[in-house]
Amino acid sequence: MDFIINSFIEAFRLIFALDQDVFNAVFISLKVSLTAIVLSSIVSLPLGFIIAEKNFVGKRLIIMILNTLMGVPTVVVGLLVYTFISRQGPLGMLNLLFTSKAMIIGQFILAFPILTSLTISAIQAVDERVAETALTLGANKRQLAYTVFLEARFGLLAAVISGFGRIIGEVGSAMILGGNIKGVTRTISTYIALQSSMGETERGIALGIILILMTFLINLLFNYFQHR
Amino acid sequence: MNDIIIKIENIKKVYDSRTALDIPYIEFKSGMIYALIGPNGAGKTTLLKLINMLEKPTEGSIYFYDQRIDQSPSLDIRRQMNLVMQNAVLFRTNVYNNVAYGLKLRGYNRNIIHSKVLSALEMVGLAGFEHRKAKQLSAGESQRVAIARAIVLEPKLLLLDEPTANVDRKNIHIIEAILRKINSENGTTIIFTTHDLSQAYRLTDKIIMLLDGKIIPKNLENIFDTFLGEISLG
After folding, report:
1. A2-227 adopts what CATH topology?
2. How far is A153 from chain B (nearest CA, A)?
């Protein structure tokens, strides 16, 4: 019990002492994950909309593949990206390995299937009479799409929240692609992994509490937009 | 100007192998109220959807005034008519935004939208409801918002599918009064469907009876009267 209490005390000490290492890790975590989720949203939301609305051969197969990719271990994605951006890889000349850009690529790939798949579900869940109503009230194609999107906004924000949840705490890809370089690519989650491998369990848990608080605050923000 | 707003010639609508609608000829005159009456599956909703260009007929032609509309839906013509669906769906926002929706699509400025929305809400007896969440309204209030959302656009043709289904008696009278008012004041042509023969007669004597996708000839209407009377009594 003391162990858990001490972890909480350590967490608050780290926050209020404005620990530089912790704040750097928080900043890098947010920078990488928010950039990845924004980029993924830009691609996944329109793509999910098109897949949901259009009927084409192979649609069900695509949805099945996306659902499967949702469960791929983060370390596998990290390794895959690594093979492309390592010195011997086809994109080696871009010198992306062990940079935050590499981590963003990894997290983008992790968020993409969950965001696209949940977007498809959110759009398909919209009452089909919404589209008919929009048409009968005089919507053109662009206005129609916008209306359906707006009606699906709760589901779409839930998709973004889920995608963000998948990447903010991931270690596998961040560790392989970022290398856990202090002040450069060290995120809260890779920092936790480092602390626990060093036997600093209390500090690891304290960092975990900070990660949860951070994620809670981001979700609070999403929740605000969801209920506006 | 031609006073026939909708003319239908030899239309058939077939779903899979079932013929939902088969009408050799029918016309609707501008400024009138028409009731389409018939049991479930008679083809009433299908006919409204064909007129509103939400569906295409399998064969035949439909004209809005002199323009053929059955094959390539025209946004310009669609914006001259509205269909209020049965248990109309309201958008997930407040009442004001629901009623303002069609005006915003047409690019009206904010002041005009504001005054039109308020007067439409007043017309349907929902003044003061602007900020209420649409999804929290009763069935009768929702239906009246849906009607306000349509009439605010001042359509030439207003189509209503079972406008008083699942609505209490008080709201039925309010909705019937609204329909009479927009017909007499704006000259809006109204075509509505109903199961309720007495309601049809309260609003109009232009009654078209449908059964199994076909229009019942005038000389057989008495039989149909009895048939529907039994249904409503039952």
Report:
1. MetI-like fold (1.10.3720)
2. 10
B1: exposed, middle or buried (C-beta count within 10 Å: 0-12, 13-18, 19+)? Answer: exposed
Tokens for A30, please give them. 């947010």
Per-residue pLDDT of chain A (228 residues; tens, 9 = 90+): 777 788 778 877 877 887 888 889 999 999 999 999 999 999 999 999 999 999 999 999 999 999 999 999 999 999 999 999 999 999 999 999 999 999 999 999 999 999 999 999 999 999 989 999 999 999 999 999 999 999 999 999 999 999 999 999 999 999 999 999 999 999 999 999 999 899 888 888 888 888 999 889 988 888 887 666
**Domain ranges within chain A, ordered by starting residue:** 2-227
Instruction: Find out whether B24 and B167 touch, Cβ atoms under 8 Å.
Output: no
Which residue in chain B has the smallest CA separation from A136?
B82
Instruction: Please judge whether A151 and B92 are an interchain contact, meaning their C-beta atoms are less than 8 angstroms apart.
Output: yes
- To test the contact with chain A by mutation, choose from B75, B81, B142, B154 the residue with the greatest count of A C-beta atoms within 10 A, namely B75
User: DSSP secondary-structure letter at B71?
Assistant: S
